[in-house]
Design brief:
Number of domains: 2
CATH superfamily of the largest domain: P-loop containing nucleotide triphosphate hydrolases
Shape: elongated
Number of strands: 14
Order of helices and strands: EEEHEEHEHHHEHEHEEHEHEEHEH
CATH architecture of the largest domain: 3-Layer(aba) Sandwich
Largest sheet: 6 strands, mixed
Strand content: 25-35%
Distance between the termini: 28 Å
CATH topology of the largest domain: Rossmann fold
CATH class of the largest domain: Alpha Beta
Bound molecules: adenosine-5'-diphosphate, magnesium ion
Radius of gyration: 25 Å
Oligomer: single chain
Structural class: alpha/beta
Length: about 325
């Protein structure tokens, strides 16, 4: 339903994205995850026909975003990063105006505006001036705007940015409800958000896609290290060295000042907990805790993103 093929976009000499290729199938909800400046909005602006790529092609439902931009726009509901709303109109007036601009006929207008107002929970504020609404409500107005004329594809650029936690939960729930009938591409720099809402995640960093998978698989596959928390009583200062000397241990780091809690990072293929337990007890200490901690997707994301950054310096010029 959404296809990006070798998308590259230069802003002057700087490549904001490079060779970005992916597909989103009909009915999928896919998260586009990456730190600020990674190239999410650039990719999204190409997919929503706001600008052409320097190289590559983008298609929505088989239609080229550049050559068939009018048809593509009709199929895509777009929530831009900074929602450009007419702040001096009421919600209802704005949505009517926008529905007209999107080609909703006069006889369907009332119904259509009422429909999106209802979905987005805007009934109570439909006669209020947009400029006086909270950020959360404005974001809903933006979403209602994207839903007008019921487009099959929704592209949402950081839909929860700037919202408070309660508003975030509400917007997430809304998006979850929309997934039934729409193909959704949603960008975010916040990982738990994407992990919760999306069945698939694409991670972009410095303009390149660095991983694509389900949140669960990403967590699983990218876990190269096991992390074990060890807490002891009666330590004599030799514990860290002894842990470090164990085969398979890659790093030992203190978790407190008193030398009671340690984080042991080891090779995933080895189960070190029995050995650690033996070592602690054998040295006359009490073992208070011994626990394998899973890397969160957040940790993995950070790992991916920092590794990539360490590898290449900012890309300039036209080298490929
Ligand atoms: P994201 O949405 O992931 O935060 P963007 O796509 O907005 O990332 O930006 C990607 C890179 O392109 C950034 O380095 C940004 O500074 C640069 N960039 C974005 N828009 C422009 C522009 N209009 N002109 C020049 N550089 C831009
Ligand atoms: Mg952005």
């Amino acid at each position: 339903m959404i296809e990006a093929e070798g998308l590259t976009k230069f802003y002057g000499p700087l490549a904001a994205i490079r060779d970005v290729t992916f597909q989103v199938d009909k009915g999928e909800v896919v998260g586009f995850l990456g730190p600020n400046g990674a190239g999410k909005s650039t990719t999204i602006r190409i997919l929503t026909c706001f600008m052409p790529p320097s190289i590559g092609t983008a298609r929505i439902d088989g239609l080229d975003c550049f050559e068939r931009s009018l048809d593509v726009r009709r199929k895509v509901g777009y929530l831009p990063e900074n929602v450009p709303l007419y702040t001096d109109l009421t919600v209802r007036r704005f949505l009517r105006f926008a529905a007209g601009a999107k080609g909703v006929e006069a006889r369907r207008m009332e119904n259509e505006v009422a429909r999106v107002t209802g979905i987005c929970g805007l009934d109570k504020v439909s006669n209020r001036i947009i400029g006086n609404l909270s950020k959360g409500y404005r974001q809903r107005v933006g979403l209602a705007h994207a839903l007008l004329n019921n487009p099959p594809v929704l592209v949402l650029d950081e839909p929860t940015i700037g919202l408070d936690p309660t508003q975030i939960i509400e917007i997430r729930r809304l998006i979850q409800e929309l997934r039934e009938e729409h193909t959704v591409l949603l960008s975010s720099h916040i990982l738990p958000e994407v992990a919760q809402i999306c069945q698939r995640v694409m991670i972009i960093n410095k303009g390149r896609i660095v991983a694509t998978d389900s949140p669960a698989n990403l967590t699983h596959q990218l876990q190269r290290l096991a992390r074990i928390i060890v807490e002891v009583e009666g330590g004599d200062g030799s514990l860290a060295g002894a842990l470090q000397a164990m085969e398979g241990v890659q790093a030992v780091s203190p978790q407190d000042e008193e030398g009671r809690r340690w984080l042991v990072e080891s090779d995933r293929s080895r189960e070190l907990r029995p050995e650690i337990a033996g070592l602690v007890v054998g040295r006359g200490m009490k073992l208070l805790e011994l626990r394998l901690v899973d890397l969160s997707l957040e940790d993995i994301f950070l790992q991916l993103v920092t590794e990539e950054s360490a590898q290449d310096s900012p890309e300039e010029g036209g080298q490929s």
